[in-house]
Amino acid sequence: MSNTEERLQKVIAQSGITSRRKAEQLIMEGKVKVNEQVIIELGTKVSPSDKIEVNGVPLEKEAPVYYMLYKPRGVISSVKDDKGRKVVTDLLEGVTERIFPIGRLDYETSGILLLTNDGEFANLLMHPKYEVEKVYVAKIKGIPNKMELGQLRKGITDEKDTLKANHYNVLSTDKKKNTMILEITLHEGQNKQIRRMMDRLGYPVMKLKREKYGMLTLDGLTPGNYRALTPKEIKQMKYGK
What we know:
The chain is an alpha+beta fold. It contains six helices and 17 strands. Helix 1 (8-14) packs across helix 2. The chain is elongated and about 70 Å long.
């Protein structure tokens, strides 16, 4: 067996069309062909010369690319929008690869958003067990007390979800305007998690920005700008060193 052969689900994930977990599901559902033969065995290995089809579409092998975008407010974290609104891939002019965002920032949230065509890399960063830290700065209406803020770490139940912050830090308070600025660190990132937590506490978020993702920061970028990750940054994000 050639040492260039790799597991089929890994090859599909690396093509950027989906995660490895989803690729495994597609294989088991009989939606993947190798050299015109339906494959349902997850241990199957393939070589670069094999012809792979997913849902009848030939797999195009792209070199992996990794970008960091300073997402502005008012942009959808998607590759398309059925309402015709601007999406994050519209901001990456000149990028020809079939990239997609890793996770989401909601419409009104700004900050770091990573995009790639490497499904395996995306799955690595999004999986809770890897505990990739994401640091947000939130401006909230009202000034909660220490006991109320403590609920962020203890956990807040909303729609059967338990939402929890790993850390928080009060950056400033403005008693005249009745506002507070909080730094909140998450490992997981459930849908609109910070907004939902603060709504439950009775202190709605007025403005929210993700300022750090793992070891990556927004240094050198302005809203709407992007850059490629360096090889060192890619390695650090993959292996934590």
